[in-house]
Structure prediction request, 338 residues.
Amino acid sequence: MDQAAYAFESRLTGESFASAIPTDYGSSMTGYVTASHPVTGNSFNINFGSTTSEGNVVGQANEIIIFPGAGAASGSTLAWASGIHNPRGSGDPWLDYMNNTRDSSTNYDSVGGTISVNTSQNFYDDTDLTTHTDATTSGKYDFYSVMVHEIGHLMGFRDGSDAWDANYNEASSLFTGANAKAEYGGSNIPMDAASDSHFGGSLDPTKINCDCHPSLNVSVSTNYRASFSDLDFAVLSDIGYTVSAAPVGTNVGSTYTDPGVGYGGTYFVPAAETYATWFARTGGGGGTGGGGGTPGGSAGAPEPAAIFTFLGLILAFFAGWREWGRRRSKPENSLLEI
Prediction:
């Protein structure tokens, strides 16, 4: 998960945003991100300003907290991302910030959320992103690629925000943002009409500048790897993120040639460190034990079992791996198998 997060951190080093905590603006309102509990499946709220058992405060400036969890679920879905803030109103300084800056027609900044992984599926857990042949010959779904996809949704690659709506023609299912068009041969980008939050099946590989699979395709197969491509990042740029032209910072990643039919482009997959370095530094663990998050409408922050911190993006893991009570049904937040 920390390596999947680094795919974004290494390209968003110029991005910054203020606190989402109401009291920081002198507001008495309660702000929260609504998400689906990654273990139980129940809808619940994570309050801005609440503190996890690791001492991380939800909603701080320049930090995004993501709570992953897992359990067995029926069907072909591999994982779900869930998390949205959509406050409405005016006349309150916190509301004005959230409506006019954090989620405006020209800018969206993520507030994090949850990722739910379906343990009924067969994943390949790659320990070394400096090589790729193992992931593309494993006969399994590449966990790294799936997590990059879901983090992409939480960063704002989804229908519903003001910035997305300003760049998306829902009637024709076309993304019209200037940066994305520049990465797609100057054309509007076809999107999946069912979800309005994935690239469509009619995407033309010959128009994609990097000649590589985007991460936010609507479907994925086994033996498939996709990091967040320049086309994916161009969409984030269109909704307001500051994206660097190449990965920035310490990097031990490697190039990858997309073997997909109609593709064949070579691009760089960033990695912060090798598995051996990470294991030596952490001993194979990321934090102390903790209880599972509180399901079903709780306003407190879920309690993580382990935590990894890389350049400000925090991944907090739920304990208590068990079957979901129900599955999240919104297709814009799911990654489906072929």
Remarks:
- The chain has one domain: 2-337.
- The chain is about 15% helix and 20% strand.
- The first strand starts at residue 32 and ends at 36.
- Residues 2-337 form one domain.
